[in-house]
């Protein structure tokens, strides 16, 4: 917090750079939720701390909108109290995009999506899973898997980033195990995994082959006379080849790990997909129970 009368704000050049306000951490989100929950009757099953844990990245306005949407869902069902299911529905609308249950989806596509999301969910098993759904959303996603992080992380470790890549590849791996073909459904997952692997190599010095050198050129300034999108890179073809090979190595190793884990839990994959086809959306508790049946 900076006091408005702090003379430091009068230093020359103080406003020469953009200053952004950080988003609240989990405790901050809980306190914001408590403020906006005043005047809104909450059911006994509503856990504000759990909501705070699932809303990493939400602003204060997002959290206010979350509870307002939940109140609307409760009112539509002529209920006085907001229930946890209202919060879950409003989270999807605010954080992911409104579900489109009216969208016509073929049984084949639903089955593909069920296995795709089940693949992600199994790899998310190292974290608590909040919910899994095969209901299309307004953002164009055919379904989603929502993890429940235990706490906000200000920095990412190499191990965590590798785990994220493994999880990203879970949908494609599940498709390969079950279908005779693969689909375009994993395109965004592959894009995210590739971008993360490239950042590990070029930006964060996480490659022994390339060492502690920043090869990331995305942040280079565009000068007058230089075409947009055609910034020059600060390394030659030999280094470019090493970067490509390291990115591919990381993706390939994560893919093999994802394939091994999902193959080990093939029974859970089938059971999760069948449950999703039956219910369209399952809770984290329902998903975790599949590992003990």
Account of the 3D structure:
- By secondary structure, this protein is mainly α.
- It is built from 11 helices and 3 strands; from the N terminus they run H-H-H-H-H-E-E-H-H-H-H-H-E-H.
- It has helices spanning about 25-35, 50-55, 60-75, 85-95, 105-125, 160-170, 170-180, 185-200, 235-265, 265-280, 285-290, and strands spanning about 130-135, 145, 280-285.
- The protein has a 3-stranded antiparallel β-sheet.
- The N and C termini lie far apart (about 50 Å).
- Mean pLDDT is about 80; it is low at about 1-20 and about 220-230.
TL;DR?
The chain is mainly alpha-helical and 293 residues long. Helices cover 51% and strands 4% of the residues.
SSE arrangement:
Layout: H1 26-37, H2 48-54, H3 60-76, H4 84-96, H5 107-123, E1 129-133, E2 144-147, H6 158-168, H7 170-178, H8 187-202, H9 237-264, H10 266-279, E3 281-283, H11 284-289
Antiparallel strand pairs: 1-2, 1-3
Helix pairs in contact: 1-2, 1-3, 3-4, 5-7, 5-10, 6-8, 6-9, 7-9, 8-9
Bulk shape:
globular
Structural classification: mainly alpha
Number of helices: 11
Q: How many extended strands?
A: 3
Low-confidence stretches: 1-20, 220-228
Order of helices and strands: HHHHHEEHHHHHEH
Give the proportion of residues in helices. 40-55%
Please give the order of strands in the largest beta sheet: 2-1-3
- Percentage of residues in strands: under 5%
């Amino acid at each position: 917090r900076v006091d408005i009368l702090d003379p430091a704000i009068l230093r020359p050049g103080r406003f020469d750079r953009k200053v952004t306000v950080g988003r609240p951490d989990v405790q901050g989100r809980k306190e914001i939720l408590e403020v906006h929950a005043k005047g809104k009757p909450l059911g006994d099953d509503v856990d504000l701390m759990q909501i705070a844990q699932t809303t990493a990245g939400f602003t204060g306005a997002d959290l206010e909108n979350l509870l307002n949407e939940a109140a609307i869902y409760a009112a539509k069902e002529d209920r006085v109290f907001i229930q946890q299911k209202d919060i879950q529905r409003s989270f999807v609308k605010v954080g992911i995009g409104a579900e489109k249950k009216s969208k016509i989806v073929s049984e084949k596509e639903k089955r593909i999506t069920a296995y795709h999301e089940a693949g992600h969910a199994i790899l998310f098993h190292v974290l608590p899973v909040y919910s899994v759904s095969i209901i299309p959303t307004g953002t164009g996603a055919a379904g989603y898997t929502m993890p429940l992080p235990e706490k906000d992380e200000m920095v990412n470790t190499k191990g965590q980033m590798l785990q994220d890549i493994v999880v990203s590849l879970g949908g494609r791996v599940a498709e390969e195990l079950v279908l005779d073909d693969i689909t375009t459904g994993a395109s965004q997952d592959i894009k995210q995994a590739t971008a993360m692997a490239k950042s590990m190599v070029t930006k964060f010095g996480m490659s022994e082959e390339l060492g502690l050198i920043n090869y990331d050129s995305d942040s280079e300034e565009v000068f007058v006379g230089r075409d947009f999108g055609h910034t020059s890179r600060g390394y030659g073809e030999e280094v470019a080849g090493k970067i490509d090979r390291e990115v591919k190595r990381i993706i390939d190793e994560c893919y093999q790990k994802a394939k091994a884990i999902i193959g080990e839990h093939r029974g859970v994959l089938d059971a999760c997909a069948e449950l999703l086809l039956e219910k369209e959306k399952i809770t984290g508790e329902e998903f975790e129970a599949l590992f003990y049946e």
